[in-house]
Amino acid sequence: MTLMKTLLGAAATLALSSAMVSADPAIIFDLGGKFDKSFNEAAFNGATKWAQETGGTFKELEMQSEAQREQALRRLAESGANPVVMTGFAFGDVLNSVAPDFPDTKFAIIDVDWLDQPNILQIAFSEHEGSYLVGMMAGLASKTNTVGFVGGMDVPLIRKFGCGYAQGVKAVKPDATVILNMTGTTPAAWNDPVKGAEIAKAQKSQGADVIYAAAGGTGVGVLQAAADEGILSIGVDSNQNYLFPGKVLTSMLKRVDNAVYEAFKAGADLETGKVKVMNLASDGVGYALDEHNAALVTPEMKATVDAAAEKIKSGELVVHDYMSDDTCPAATF
Amino acid sequence: MDYATFLQILDTTVRLATPLLLACLAGLYSERAGVFDIGLEGKMLMAAMTSAAVAALTGSVWVGLAAGILGALLFALVHGLASITFRGNQLISGVALNFVASGITVLIAQDLFGQGGRTPPLSGGARFNAISLPFVDSLSVVPILGPMYREVISGHTFLVYVAAALVPATWWLLYRTRFGLRLRAVGENPASVDTAGVSVIRLRFTAVLITGVLCGLAGAYMSTGLQAGFGREMTAGRGYIALAALIFAKWRPWQALGATMLFGFFQALALRPDVIAKTGLSIPVPALDALPYILTVVVLAGIVGKAIPPRAGGEPYVKER
């Protein structure tokens, strides 16, 4: 009976894998959810763009809990999807153990750069550079000389955002105060808009008049509270300017959409076994300027920030990356 | 810490403690009647979604509030059916409802609005706005109490004052009315209530439904008072903190107020690391977040006082074997 089961299972697997010659690409969204108006949504937009342009189809999966990761990844890889893209550093360790079992499948993972497998493409964004630019804008826009930062879960990646931001603020206003808060230490910190709003209010009462939220779904609460309290906020990952027109100073763009689009476009020919750095120079990060925040960004502000961006691109100006040595010259966590 | 900062923290405390207080009182009714309810979280989440969704669709926060209460009542009814009528395990029913709520709220909101399980941001009459209490300006010249009245007591949304009024109301109902006496008795010794000719089933159902209404208020407060819209899993474990507060308060209404305010104060303090740093102590923020649970364990362990749950709690009532 057991043997029968094994045989049937093997047959089913064979049938599945042979049916998958077409090899659709697949994407796995992390716990924030596909429509987080931020990181995962950017990934989804990139995948959608690819689908619209090529007429192709892609598989997708949304994580519901931590425990699902390995199972979900294996299931997609077994189904023959190629390449398999996943959003989020939390997949790093799981992918490291799964990837060797599927040598013919190509994997791309965003926000990870510490793995070493021949079939994994690691895509690392230079969030500190983008955060530096929006930090400069915050510093220039602040009248109270105090700005705030609200992080989601307290992980090195989010500290990298905060550290770049603080450096940007100090670059234009060396004596400015940067208030740094993290929402929490568990994944629930990505989805707690109420706490995000309270942190924003607490920062406002300490004098902050521009607040940068790098906190997934929690950030929506931060932006809402800032709009209610009449101060400015800065969105993250996707362009969030439209959420509260005239109240969001800018958004730090992390072009996850481009990364996913390019990975899907390369398909089975995806170059793996390396780390791809998406920085300012390669348009991987940036800041958002559109009709919703045009009135808030003065020409001088734009000129200052663009000048700094050029310097970063040419390598003349180096923004310190928190994750390189776990320290920050401009702020303490 | 200067007085103004202290008042700001108290103001935050009131806002953060209100959903805890409402949920804690909700749990109090149910558990005092002998029905454990671990599903406060799920009911709050459901109410948060239905109230924000209906408020977004109708543009009226009052219709939204009613919908929120109905949503939570629906879940309370299911819990009642499972654990009272069909004598199922109350904890399992509660946990199951939490899971259902976690999924179904996103599903419904996604189906209605297509914004990834979010409701559109509410504005104007679709959300509760802050109420300024009378005499705020004339009283603010009074030293100490004036600013306190202006910063901490005034300027909250309608549901905060409802929550505050519910504390004495609950006390009165539980300890000064016949219904309250029976409710407490049914949680301690349902057989004696039954012998007296009072329906255990009906009493317990009433208690569970009151729990639903209060959870409805708590959820609606979160999505239409504190926030302007529903987001996935936005209750973020407050239902469980409320349960911890209920144990900490030893299932008593006034103590529930104290416990939730204390927990809210810890949460508010955790948002102000600068204040803690100024006192010279170095308390990590996560330690403050964990304090409510630690205190609850301390109380449960009998180190400070003794928490004795209602004796018949968790057991379905069987009339005859």
TrEMBL record, chain A:
<feature type="signal peptide">
    <location>
        <begin position="1"/>
        <end position="23"/>
    </location>
</feature>
<dbReference type="Pfam" id="PF02608">
    <property type="entry name" value="Bmp"/>
</dbReference>
<dbReference type="InterPro" id="IPR028082">
    <property type="entry name" value="Peripla_BP_I"/>
</dbReference>
<keyword id="KW-1003">Cell membrane</keyword>
<dbReference type="GO" id="GO:0005886">
    <property type="term" value="C:plasma membrane"/>
</dbReference>
<feature type="domain" description="ABC transporter substrate-binding protein PnrA-like">
    <location>
        <begin position="29"/>
        <end position="316"/>
    </location>
</feature>
<dbReference type="InterPro" id="IPR050957">
    <property type="entry name" value="BMP_lipoprotein"/>
</dbReference>
<keyword id="KW-0449">Lipoprotein</keyword>
<dbReference type="InterPro" id="IPR003760">
    <property type="entry name" value="PnrA-like"/>
</dbReference>
<protein>
    <submittedName>
        <fullName>Nucleoside-binding protein</fullName>
    </submittedName>
</protein>
<keyword id="KW-0732">Signal</keyword>
<keyword id="KW-0472">Membrane</keyword>
<comment type="similarity">
    <text>Belongs to the BMP lipoprotein family.</text>
</comment>
Automatic annotation (TrEMBL), chain B:
<dbReference type="GO" id="GO:0022857">
    <property type="term" value="F:transmembrane transporter activity"/>
</dbReference>
<keyword id="KW-1003">Cell membrane</keyword>
<keyword id="KW-0812">Transmembrane</keyword>
<feature type="transmembrane region" description="Helical">
    <location>
        <begin position="90"/>
        <end position="108"/>
    </location>
</feature>
<feature type="transmembrane region" description="Helical">
    <location>
        <begin position="290"/>
        <end position="309"/>
    </location>
</feature>
<dbReference type="GO" id="GO:0005886">
    <property type="term" value="C:plasma membrane"/>
</dbReference>
<protein>
    <submittedName>
        <fullName>Nucleoside ABC transporter membrane protein</fullName>
    </submittedName>
</protein>
<feature type="transmembrane region" description="Helical">
    <location>
        <begin position="50"/>
        <end position="78"/>
    </location>
</feature>
<feature type="transmembrane region" description="Helical">
    <location>
        <begin position="12"/>
        <end position="30"/>
    </location>
</feature>
<keyword id="KW-0472">Membrane</keyword>
<feature type="transmembrane region" description="Helical">
    <location>
        <begin position="251"/>
        <end position="270"/>
    </location>
</feature>
<dbReference type="Pfam" id="PF02653">
    <property type="entry name" value="BPD_transp_2"/>
</dbReference>
<keyword id="KW-1133">Transmembrane helix</keyword>
<dbReference type="InterPro" id="IPR001851">
    <property type="entry name" value="ABC_transp_permease"/>
</dbReference>
<feature type="transmembrane region" description="Helical">
    <location>
        <begin position="158"/>
        <end position="175"/>
    </location>
</feature>
<feature type="transmembrane region" description="Helical">
    <location>
        <begin position="205"/>
        <end position="230"/>
    </location>
</feature>
